[in-house]
Amino acid sequence: MGTFPAALIVRLIGGPTALIELGGLRLLTDPTFDPPGDHPIGRRNLVKTTGPAIPAEEVGRVDAVLLSHDQHPDNLDDAGRRFLDQVPLVLSTAAAEARLGGTTRDLPPWTGLTLPRPDGGELRITGVPAQHGPAGSEYLTGEVRGFVLSGEGLPRVYVSGDNASLAVVSDVADHAGPIDVAILFAGHARSPLMDAYLTLGGEQAVRAAEILAAPTVIPIHVEGWRHLTEGMDAVVDAFARRGLTDRLLILHPGDTATVESRTPLI
Questions:
Q1: Taking every annotated instance into account, which residue ranges of this chain make up the domain Metallo-beta-lactamase (predicted)?
Q2: Is the pLDDT of residue 245 over 70?
């Protein structure tokens, strides 16, 4: 009989911010801990509508931050930037490393980095592409990174970051699969700078789930900011129409879930 991988624990703090516990290590995605309010960015103003379910000081030890990008306040707000000062490692883009300094490091696409686990094993974090809008919009939206987490005895986890491209999802499935758990940034974010969506919507999220063949999908970044045009209901409806509701793991801010693998390691 095969042995089952260690459990994955995910706690949603709000927006794109989730605490991931895997292999005894604690990873935080895109820190956003500001209260509701305005966030001017160039000629635009991104409006945060809800604060975090868990304040930064209650998060506890974080071994690494998985920062999809630093240039937009809905992925790294003011309190989130201060939070980075206490983290030993921040993995992100080359642009983020140049701007943030400190412990921030570029993790280029398809490049891996290993962290020692308390049980003597290793957790491998691989940078993967993300496209924050339609093709050709990179000069406006900037560089973005996704991540794949893997290791012996662990489920393989995909963290999409702010990605709007199903072609990118296909690349991840082809080069970093099979994926056991997909944490998809959704919300169908829209910018006044262009007539286009910058992240997955419900329909795109269910197609991503099909492409990845992931048995568990956790949608995040669907609430808390005014420029998000679809909430969790849109994701649930899209999965229901495709008969894939059983793959969804819905977390609301403050919720914690444990994901047990459905298939044994042989």
A1: 26-221
A2: yes
Q: Where are the domains of the chain?
A: 8-259
For residue 250, the Cα-to-chain-centroid distance in whole angstroms is: 14
Q: What is the pLDDT of residue 41?
A: 81
77: which residues sit within 8 A by CB, 6+ positions away?
Answer: 31, 32, 33, 34, 39, 48
Query: Do 205 and 241 touch, CB atoms closer than 8 A?
Result: no
Name the CA dihedral angle for 62, 172, 206, 48, rounded to a multiple of 10 degrees. Answer: 40
Q: How many whole angstroms separate alpha carbon 214 and alpha carbon 197?
A: 24
Give the pLDDT confidence score for residue 229 in this predicted structure: 86
Over the stretch 98-117, which tens digit does the pLDDT of each residue have?
999 999 999 999 999 999 99
Mean pLDDT score across all residues of the chain: 91
What does the chain come to in residues? 266
Cα separation, 120 vs 170, in Å, equals 33
How far apart are alpha carbons 104 and 142 in whole angstroms? Answer: 17
The C-alpha atoms of residue 234 and residue 151 are separated, in whole angstroms, by: 33
Strands (E), the chain: 8-14, 17-22, 25-29, 37-41, 44-48, 64-66, 90-92, 104-106, 112-116, 122-130, 144-150, 157-159, 181-185, 216-220, 256-259
Q: Which residues contact 145 (CB under 8 A, 6 or more apart)?
A: 67, 68, 69, 91, 92, 93, 107, 109, 127, 128, 129, 130, 161
pLDDT tens digit sequence for 166-221: 999 999 999 998 999 999 999 888 876 666 777 889 999 999 999 999 999 999 99
The CATH class of 8-259 is alpha beta
